[in-house]
Amino acid sequence: MHTKLAIGIDVGGTNIRIALVDVSGALVGILKQPTHADREIHHILGDIAQGIGKLMSMHNLSRQNVCGIGLGAPGFLSIQAGVIRYCPNLPTAREVPVVSLLQRLTDLPVCLENDANAAAIGEHWMGAGQGSRNLLCITLGTGVGSGFIFNDRVWHGSNDLAGELGHTTLFPEGLSCKCGRRGCLEAYVSATGIVTRTELALKAGSDSSLADFLNKPNNPLSALAVYEHAERGDRLAREIFEETGSYLAIALANVLNLLDLETIIIGGQVAHAGELLIRPTIHAVAQRALRAPYYPIRILQAQLGDHAGVMGAAKTVFDRTSYQASSI
Amino acid sequence: MHTKLAIGIDVGGTNIRIALVDVSGALVGILKQPTHADREIHHILGDIAQGIGKLMSMHNLSRQNVCGIGLGAPGFLSIQAGVIRYCPNLPTAREVPVVSLLQRLTDLPVCLENDANAAAIGEHWMGAGQGSRNLLCITLGTGVGSGFIFNDRVWHGSNDLAGELGHTTLFPEGLSCKCGRRGCLEAYVSATGIVTRTELALKAGSDSSLADFLNKPNNPLSALAVYEHAERGDRLAREIFEETGSYLAIALANVLNLLDLETIIIGGQVAHAGELLIRPTIHAVAQRALRAPYYPIRILQAQLGDHAGVMGAAKTVFDRTSYQASSI
């Protein structure tokens, strides 16, 4: 085998995905294993190294076939230093030099990337962002992640902390956010925010086929349930998605007014609502974005689903390897 | 004379400034003339060409001593095409190829730049932003302008429309903005917004030494008057500036959370309030910016005052000229 492969890793709070990706963007193989995020970070890294070994032997690969590992991790990172500084989803990962630790375990070069940035890189490379030089990729899951591509490169900011669209303020005195602040976008448009707003509306007496959820303790309300009821025509559920779109639109129009990007990509579990979410979002962005009368607004659903993160993590390996080669 | 000079121009709604700047950033000479913005744009450009000629002869310069003209203009531009597409402050400037027109009038190369971006470039080059790779420069005047510097270069966005911080949404159902939308930052923190909020508070019965302004039709309230009363200890006037800082802080913290910049520079007439504005802004940004516990927040008053625009416009000439030279 002559074509080198990269290994892309997406460390989530629940699962870790490990993928083999070739330089043309083909996903050669993928493996999913539980994170067990409450364990010591060294054990989690040990599991990752084992998973890498397993995936490589499944594909009859040796270290010579692999040019490196891209590690997509959540939380606050120092990317050049290869350190996870702080991560709410990996409680034991505080100031941990994950790059050197994983390098030692695998004897392969490792690059670190923020998970939301990795998703943006993946969608830009092989997904909905192909051909856009400047884009935002927002992931609506339990929380809200986001990553920017400017001039075809990911934007890290001065301290690798860029991309926290979820913690921009939507309503200065609004709902509490789990970050400790009030009125963050995440408190409204994440899966958690959708559940909170639905519960508040039900408690305020809104008529809805979702009312049963309030009385069944073992049947907790989820964003998926709200979506399913909306699909079946429930008015409250539909209104919740309309409202989610209009809230999201405020943040996205702000980004467009600030940065004038070509494309906004919406991914994550909440984006599975498709047109139910995207249509009201596009409508409300057009009302608030100054460029609307001049240039079209491109707001697209993500294309790579759960694979965006591993694809982007793998891409960082190709980019940084060739960057180093060309700078010698 | 061997050192080449650039001419930087700042076209405002009231005045046009024309400056001679050398490559080290020294302001060799400056001239200010009224815009008469309601006249035909061709007459305005003719005046600019005359002003350039006057300034050059005052300094005994011929065309050989000048490497080009940087034209900082307000409104929506197409920078590469050299066109002002639309400009609320220059009503006759619609789809006008100002670069080719001014080139013909002066026989000098002309580069176009947005006025708020020119101020950012100026502050980055010779003002409060020196040494910062990534910054936002916000100008609080009659309106709110802003420009980004990323990796030491100005950010134009995909269509030269980046930097509209003034029209990001602060309160989705808030005060009317002159752009036709509701709740824009500009409606709150511009000089106009400060006057509006003070008037609303006075009409609602707030006790203040500013109350006289409501009864004197020929003595209209201004942001400067609110500032002067605040300096003299008037409680309402002080609260208005505290509130201005806290509103501004929401937008600035959003920018920091999105982009993780090193420095934010606040300029324009409202920034003359100094600590009265900057102190509450810094306080409130620290509460909303995620990076606050990790990295310091640098929020600085602009240093170049009314010269930021001409300095930045001149710098674009040096940058684009040397860029072209090095790319041959």
Q: What is the CATH topology descriptor of the largest domain in chain A?
A: Nucleotidyltransferase, domain 5
**Secondary structure category of chain A:** alpha/beta
- Largest beta sheet: strand ordering of chain A: 3-2-1-4-7
Per DSSP E runs of 2 or more residues, the count of β-strands of chain A stands at 12
Biggest sheet features of chain A: 5 strands, mixed
For the record, give the distance between the C-alpha atoms at the N and C termini of chain A, rounded to a whole number: 26 Å
- Which CATH class of the largest domain in chain A applies here? Alpha Beta
Shape of chain A: globular
Oligomer: homodimer
The radius of gyration of chain A is: 20 Å
How large is the count of helical segments of chain A? 9
Encode the helix/strand succession of chain A as letters.
EEEHEEEHEHEEEHHHHEHEH
Q: What is the CATH architecture annotation of the largest domain in chain A? A: 2-Layer Sandwich
Low-confidence stretches of chain A: 323-328
What is the H level of CATH, i.e. the homologous superfamily of the largest domain in chain A?
A: ATPase, nucleotide binding domain
**Which pair of protein chains has the largest interface, and what are the residue counts?**
A-B, 41 and 41 residues
**What is the overall pLDDT average of chain A?**
93
